[in-house]
Write the structure tokens for this entry.
Amino acid sequence: MSTIWDHDPETGEIIEDPKSNTGEYSVSEIANALKRTLEDTFGYVRVRGEISGFKGPSASGHCYFSIKDEAAKLDAVIWRGSFSRLRAKMQEGLEVIATGKITSYPMKSNYQIVIENIEPAGVGALMALLEERKKTLAAEGLFDSGRKRPIPYLPKVIGVVTSPTGAVIRDILHRLNDRFPRHVLVWPVRVQGESCAAEVAAAIAGFNAMARRPDVIIVARGGGSLEDLWGFNEEIVVRATAASAIPVISAVGHETDTTLIDFASDLRAPTPTAAAEMAVPVRANLIADLAKHHARMQGGLRRGMDDRRTRVISAARALPRPDELLALVRQRFDSASGRLVQALKANTREHGARLNRVAPRLSLAPLRTIILSERRSLELSGRRASQALSRLVAFQRQRFDGVAKLAESLSYKSVLRRGFAVVRTEKGKPVHSAGEIKQWQPLRLEFADGEINVREDSSKQGRLL
């Protein structure tokens, strides 16, 4: 290695440079060495500070900004995959606690923190974030009173979104059974933690997607800190509640707790037990009210009938008696009936006189013409009927002769005329075989020209008769 000389700035003498024996490093080697030192020394850290220069994700989906306090500023980056999993909403000036890895960026010779998780720092920051989110959602009209729907007076089915193992569901069921038992559908969800908001929003949407939907939904959770109840402040829960076609009662926390779902719901209950009371009336009170209304209705009907009866009686007093109403009509009838007999007699006399006046002018010639015409018509009809009857008798006689000939041809007598005979017993029963005849049994033989009586003699050869 060559020796490097230099001048003493005070004396001007030439001296040997002691750094001339130091090894040389490339820029990349220095940058990578510093990077390893930072990562090995700090590793994962939690840094508290205020967000500065935040402009949202870049075109690549990564976020670049700074975290600062009163005396220093630290560059920060959140990769796209980590940013999509963040629960907290990033915004300028928000005080946060960032968890990540300290490293360096060799291209710019600076160090930075690669953030994997970020959350508001303390209740004050959460409240600031809550107020900012509330303003944003209110500006969209999600909290308007005009879009809130009335709760059904007596729902048949009640949907409950809550934890299935907590005291909340037991309190709701117990209160419903005390007031007015109803059919309850429970959609189990986590009411705290990272998956709380997504599960609650999915439960509300799931109830709305059912074929037989509940009439009202109760979203309930017990009390807790602001961090515990934060899932009910998420936008996804607020939007699902506002979009629900089923009325929603929110009952998150105690009476003093307020979450954003309370503003988006159709009715806020201070406690889960109060939500059950708001969902259904008291059955005993309802029965008492019905009995009271029934009694009032019966009393009103009785009073109405009595009033109408009094009015009818009063009106009847001013009316005349039935005899007085019919007296004039009866008198007019009697007068008309007396004139009717005389009018009938006069009418008869008038028609008789008119008949006597026209009788001499009447002639019998037209009447004789009509009688002769009717007689000729009757004679013609008689002749036609006689001819039709003769033809019918001839036709029927012809049919009868044909049937008689057929019957004669089929009769056994035609067989007898060909030389045969019919053998019968004494009582007239036909004999079909010789084995049926006993010795000396009387028989009758029928021929075509008559019958003879014989007796069987089996002693003679050939059974001669």
Q: What stands out?
A: The chain has five domains: 27-120, 139-281, 289-316, 368-401, 416-455.
